[in-house]
Amino acid sequence: MIAKLSGRLDETGEDWAIVDVQGVGYLVHCSTKTLAALGAVGQACTVHTDLQVSENDMRLLGFAESGERDWFRLLTQVQGVGSKVALAILSALSTGELRDACAAGDAATVARAQGVGPKLAGRIVNELKDKAGALPGGGVAGAARITPAGGASADAVSALQNLGFKPAVAAQAVARAQEELGEGAGEGDLIRVALKKAAG
Question: In the chain, what's the furthest Cα-to-Cα distance?
């Protein structure tokens, strides 16, 4: 099992890179976020990898962080999610956004990924909701659980979404604002502080 490659970035494509390790070029399929993190061709790089073997194919998947690889493995356990779809999700969302979307049951955010329809997105968040908190990702795990379904918090989340923030980002920002201001905070104060959190 190849778990990690350290070498020189030899070549890149739309969804792949070749890493030269002491004269041997390894073709690794990557998300766009990992490709961006690898740097320029000719530079030293390290990728965390996952080897997938099927009846007629053998693929090496590459990730800039081990946390992204953990999410990839979790995503591919969901029925209907192959390596291509998992990489598309990891290209569209950061691990933090994915974690918050799953914790919040926010299928719409997951459905932004290419090739992921509403039905598949719903299955992904339903199956991974309980596992999301245990995996790496930025932000507050389970922000939706911190933010009550009604009252000032829900109104503040709705206001942030109307301003163009993604549901998971809005829920996370309001949850952090509520932690800072306390449970009795009003909608206006929550929005003001949450906007600073979301913008930061």
Answer: 63
pTM of the model: 0.64
Last residue of a domain, one of 15, 31, 63: 63
Coil, strand, or helix at residue 9? strand
Tens of pLDDT, residue by residue over 31-46, are: 998 998 888 899 999 9
Letter for the amino acid at 54?
S
Q: Are strands 24-30 and 58-63 parallel, antiparallel or unpaired?
A: parallel
Contact between 63 and 87 (Cβ < 8 Å) = no
HEC sequence for 14-48:
CCEEEEEECCEEEEEEECHHHHHHHCCCCCEEEEE
Domain span at residue 105?
69-134
Q: What is the mean pLDDT of residues 67-80?
A: 92
* CATH code, domain carrying 15: 2.40.50.140
State the Cα–Cα distance between residues 112 and 118, nearest whole angstrom: 9
Hey, what are 135's tokens? 């995996």
Burial class (CB in 10 A: 0-12, 13-18, 19+), 164: exposed
Distance CA(88)–CA(42), nearest Å, equals 26
Residue 180 CB-half CA count within 13 A: 14
